[in-house]
Amino acid sequence: MTDEHSPRPVPRAVALAYGANDAAPKVVAKGRGLIAEQIIDIALEAGVFVHESRDLVSLLMDIDLDQQIPPTLYRTIAELLAWLYHIESAQKSGLPLPAPPDPLASLTDTRN
């Protein structure tokens, strides 16, 4: 049973792009509600993998469009990109998919 009066969480989404000549990934789209749903739908239709992390999205929502991610997020995003590369490799070779990284673990890792 669901409570009709309990608010449903509003979806949020952030899209990053990283080109060969870019110093760091950039925020290329972000939004809440319907806009977030459209960002996710477009990504899925284009075959782009969608990773869910409320904490990471919260951090990325504070970055202006067409701005690079801050250096504090470099390691976190690099780990996600490496994971995505491993997913693509596993899919091509028929191997099991790797477990996702904890996107905020590198932010709290004191061994940096």
TrEMBL record:
Keyword Repressor listed? The answer is no
Gene3D superfamilies attached here? secretion proteins EscU
Biological process annotations from GO: protein secretion
Top-level taxon in the UniProt lineage: Bacteria
Q: Where is this region: Disordered?
A: 92-112
**InterPro entries of this UniProt entry?**
T3SS_substrate_exporter, T3SS_substrate_exporter_C
Tell me yes or no: is Ubl conjugation among this UniProt entry's keywords: no
Q: Which residues cross the membrane?
A: none
Record SUPFAM superfamilies = EscU C-terminal domain-like (SSF160544)
Q: Which GO terms describe its cellular component?
A: plasma membrane
Cite the entry's keywords alphabetically.
Answer: Cell projection, Cilium, Flagellum
| Entry similarity comment | Belongs to the type III secretion exporter family.
Q: What is this protein called?
A: Flagellar biosynthetic protein FlhB
